[in-house]
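Feature request, filed as a ticket because there's no other form

It would be nice if the structure record came with a short human-readable summary line next to the tokens. Right now we just get the raw output. Example of a typical job, pasted below so the devs can see what we mean:
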Amino acid sequence: MNEQWHMKKEINIAHIITTVALIVSGLTFLSDMDKRITTNTTQIVHIQEQRKEDLRRLEKRLDSIERKLDELISNSSK
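Raw output as currently delivered:
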């Protein structure tokens, strides 16, 4: 048997449609991923700002507690 390779010079419409669909779905996926990354970045920045504000409040409260303790100690030693 003489088996030879041969190639057809025709283009199948189904292959073109499938390729276009894959490209469109890939671009859609990447676009959605970009939106999620942007949303996550915004949320991370917001959480970092909240943590800084919470830390400032905590420091104020601790300063207040420390002042009250100092007053109590100074009053009890008199």
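Something like this underneath would help us a lot:
The radius of gyration is 34 Å.
Helices lie at 13-76.
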